[in-house]
Structures are given as C-alpha cells and as structure tokens.
C-alpha cells in the first residue's frame, strides 16, 4: 500500500495526507460551497471531523490509493489530488485532482500531477498511471497534456451528468515515457467586430448538421453524404482528438449579438517545426454572402501569426468553388497556383498567407 505519511514536495506545493490540522480550512471550504475535494468529502460541517480522522484515509488503509491535500507555501489547502483504483498486481493506478476555484489558472494541478507521478515511479513498482477527463472539460484535459500524459482515446457517452451523457477522454502515463508535452493549440476565444469564435460544443449540433447536409456544402467538401447530427457529434470528437494530437484546432463562428451559429473554421495539417498550417471552413447556408467566414479566417490568421509565431497559413479551394476563393482573396491570401487533381479528382486553387501580407491590412 501507499505510505500512510506519503508526502511529495514540488516547487510551490506540498502534497500530504489530510489531518485534524485542516479542520478550520475544510470548514471554510464546506461552508463556501466550493467543489474540489475528493469523492466522499463532507458536504456538511458535521462530517468534517469523521472525514479527517477516518474517511480521508480509507483508500490508503485499503491499499487502493490515497487522498492528499494540495497545500501552498503557507500551508493553506488549495486543492486535492488522489490516487485510486490501484492494482498492485497489474502495476496500475489512476490519478484525479481538483483545485479551489480561487486558485485555478496558476498551474497548481499540472505541477501536483507531475510531482505525484514522479514520486510513484520513483518509490513504487507501478508501471502505469491512468487519467480521465470529460471531453468538454478543457482545463482538466490541459492539465493532462502539461503533465506529459498521452491521450489514448475517447469513451463515448461514458459518464452521465445532470445535463446528459458526456464523452470521456482517456490518458495514460507509462514508466519511462519522455514526459515532454507535445505542442498543441490551446482553446482560445477570438473576437471581431461582428463575431465570436469559440470552442465547438454540443449546442452547435443542429447548426453543424444543417450546414453539413446543405447541397452546396456536400458539393464542395468531403463531409459524409446525408450528413446528420450523428456525423456532427463525430466531428466534435474528431476536432478535439486532432487538437490533442497537435494537428490543429477548431472554432465555432457565431454572431456576437445573437449567438447564432454562422459557420466553422479549423486548422489542420500543422507543422510545428516549420510553423505552417492550413485553414478550412464551412459557412451556414443562412449566413452566406455576409463576409462572416472571411472575417473569422483573418482573425485566426492574426492569432497564429502574432501569438504563436507561425510563418505560413495555407488555404485550398476547389477550382469550381468561386465563393470560397473570394473568401481567401478578401482575407488577403495570395493565389499561388493550382494543385491538379488535388481533391477527389478536382483541381484545387492554392492560396498562401504570410505575416507580411497583413502589414497595414485592417480587419474585415
């Protein structure tokens, strides 16, 4: 089993067992309604003492894990981290974590996960650490990525919450893994005068399905024929997996004032060494002719050039798709040539955009 006094010290944190000395802090947490303590933690002040003296240590006594307080330099409990589902025979365990809402965004969770993983591999014979996170929990997924875990797949509709089933992203860390986190695009909202670009989610399913099933979209893209909401759900899983693999990132484009879905923009085929990537997009039928997607593409271009040091953004459009070509040209892309039979037997017009092309160019 894990040591009853298991303690891990990182640069800014001490991970240690909960104890009676935490009573006042846990009382304040319970009374505030903050949710981040491990499963089984008290929800009423009457349960604090029994939990600190017994409940918080049941995992350790059973040999299946340990609940640890995440404390800062002043000894204040700012989070919690746990090992659980430990199989000493198989050599595996799972890690979970939570950070007090007032202390999020400071990198405490990845620091704690990294420190605890290092301790596990240094002081036990365990060979693998599992980590799971709701697919729509961007913050938790980023913790796994920063801690060097490898994303291994998605369990569809694996957890049921108040708002319905959620997909679960599966991560793993093996003894001997390089622990070097791959470069990935963060989920980052972008804004223009008329638009908000945000992370795609389930509220986009009707808009995605209608756009994907539209005759023009079907004619000029490779989306599945007879596109449905099931295909849209597959798209959401695909773009998140592609982001986790470092291949790109996607945005839903919506009107700032109304929140109405007007299209999607995504980056793909990213080369992080050369700092090049390609942009693709779909425009909702009801939003065509208003310049929305060109405006969104230009916002994405400025973001990757200014914030991520990219040197080239490529765009390809079917030779027969003059509307898509106008999007590229209005956004400032330079026509560079034609890739013959570049896509499903059709010629593709190749456009490129580099940072100097945007010098002096105002937003659309």
UniProtKB/TrEMBL annotation:
Keywords: Transferase. SUPFAM superfamilies: Acyl-CoA N-acyltransferases (Nat). The keyword Phosphoprotein does not apply. The keyword Translocase does not apply. GO terms for molecular function: protein N-terminal-serine acetyltransferase activity; protein-N-terminal-alanine acetyltransferase activity. Transmembrane segments: none annotated. Residues 13-175, 195-355 form the N-acetyltransferase domain. GO terms for cellular component: cytoplasm. InterPro entries: Acyl_CoA_acyltransferase (IPR016181), GNAT_dom (IPR000182), Ribosomal_N-acetyltransferase (IPR051908). This is RimJ/RimL family protein N-acetyltransferase.
């Amino acid at each position: 089993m894990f040591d009853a006094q298991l303690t891990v010290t990182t640069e800014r944190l001490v991970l240690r067992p909960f104890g009676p000395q935490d009573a006042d802090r846990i009382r304040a947490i319970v009374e505030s309604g903050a949710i981040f303590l491990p499963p089984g933690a008290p929800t009423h002040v009457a349960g604090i003492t029994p939990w600190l003296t017994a409940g918080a240590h049941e995992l350790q006594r059973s040999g299946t894990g340990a609940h640890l307080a995440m404390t800062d330099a002043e000894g204040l409990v700012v989070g919690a981290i746990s090992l659980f589902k430990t199989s000493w025979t198989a050599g595996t365990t799972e890690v979970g974590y939570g950070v007090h809402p007032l202390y999020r965004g400071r990198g405490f969770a990845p620091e704690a996960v990294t420190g605890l993983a290092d301790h596990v591999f240094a002081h036990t014979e365990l060979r693998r650490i599992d980590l799971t996170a709701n697919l729509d929990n961007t913050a938790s997924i980023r913790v796994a990525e920063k801690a060097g875990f490898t994303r291994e797949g998605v369990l569809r509709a694996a957890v049921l919450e108040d708002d319905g089933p959620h997909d679960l992203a599966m991560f793993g860390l093996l003894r001997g893994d390089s622990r070097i986190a791959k470069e990935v695009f963060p989920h980052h909202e972008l804004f223009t005068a008329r638009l908000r670009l945000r992370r795609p989610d389930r509220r986009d399913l009707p808009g995605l399905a209608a756009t994907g099933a539209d005759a023009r979209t079907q004619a000029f893209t490779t989306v599945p024929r007879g596109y449905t909401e099931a295909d849209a759900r597959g798209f959401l899983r695909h773009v998140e997996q592609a982001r986790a693999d470092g291949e790109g990132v996607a945005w839903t484009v919506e009107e700032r004032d109304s929140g109405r879905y007007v299209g999607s923009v995504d980056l793909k085929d990213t080369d992080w060494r050369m700092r090049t990537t390609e942009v693709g997009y779909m425009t909702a039928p009801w939003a065509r002719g208003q310049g929305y997607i060109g405006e969104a593409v230009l916002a994405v271009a400025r973001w990757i050039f200014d914030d991520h040091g990219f040197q080239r953004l490529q765009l390809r459009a079917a030779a027969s798709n003059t509307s898509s070509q106008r999007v590229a040209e209005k956004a400032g892309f330079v026509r560079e040539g034609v890739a013959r039979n570049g896509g499903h037997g059709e010629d593709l017009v190749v456009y490129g955009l580099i940072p100097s092309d945007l010098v002096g160019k105002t937003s659309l």
